[in-house]
Amino acid sequence: MLLVIFGAGASYDSAPTYPPGVGIPTGDHLNNFDRPPLANELFADRPVFAQAITLFSGVRANRSTTKKAQRRVPGSRAAGPTSESQGLSTWPSTIGCRPLLLAIHSLALWHSVERRREGRYELQDPAGPNRADKHKERAGLYRNIQLRHAT
Amino acid sequence: MLLEDALSDFGLPIKAVTDYTKRHPFYKVFKVHGSVNWARIVDNEILSQNPKHDWSVTHEWIQRAAELSVTDNYALCSSCPTAVVDGRPAFPAIAIPVEKEKTFECPSSLIEELKTWLPETTKTLVIGWRATEEHFLNLLKAHLRPGLLFHVVAGNLQDADEVQVRIHRALMNKPPRHVSAGDKGFTDFILSGDAENFLAM
User: What ipTM, to 2 d.p.?
Assistant: First the structure.
């Protein structure tokens, strides 16, 4: 029997057209917006994460928690203590993490919805849509999220 | 969710939590750290004036985080954010990865089922996993047999080396027969034919 263990790195490198490290003609938009993060980038100050956090006022008020949390993820690139053993025992309790979890979860779900939408595009048009159209689509989704939040 | 999408192409559509292991004769999927489309039912009553509005309930959960009673009753969900599932109050079932995690974010029945399957393993493929989670490593150590074939797929040489060392260290009492590694990532592993070669071994 074959056992396959998938970690975050599997989804990170799950787009064969754009493997990590390949130069992207339109800039780094893909890495900032579309690529699911590695575990050590979960709380990093990426544009989509920052956007998602702003939707959760309770979390935004406690932004320092996310910075502390990032330092506690093994291999984190955040400033501050990054040793794998350091700080892990003081990781916020499950309860303390709950607001942050809600934000992370919503962000992950957002990624998932976005990828499914793009996947459907590719099924309809093997050549894929024009990237500018994709960006317009993405901007529309942002507006939709903000609108839902406001209502 | 990427995995669920892929599995639906192989005759394994996931419509309920039990589908992950009960629906298909040979594909068994165990998501030990939860999933973006999983929720746990909450025992607390929703106080929000709009109890069906996900955003209202989410903000309520943030304010009441410390008093929430999150049950072990898992459900699939598709709303964003996840706060209400089929009219029931719910909380996202997903874990933040840390080394010293003590529990899995997964129904205990699935973990028990995983324990019964692990001894049947003959080959293990590790893709994009750093092998740092002690709790899961202990599960492998307790239930895998010695003499397995391992292949590690990592994004660079240093990660590949570190994962191999961690696997050897964790399975010191049940040493694998052979551990190999690729350092060019998942995409290359598939496109280069290395995946087929490993499966044919």
Answer: 0.93
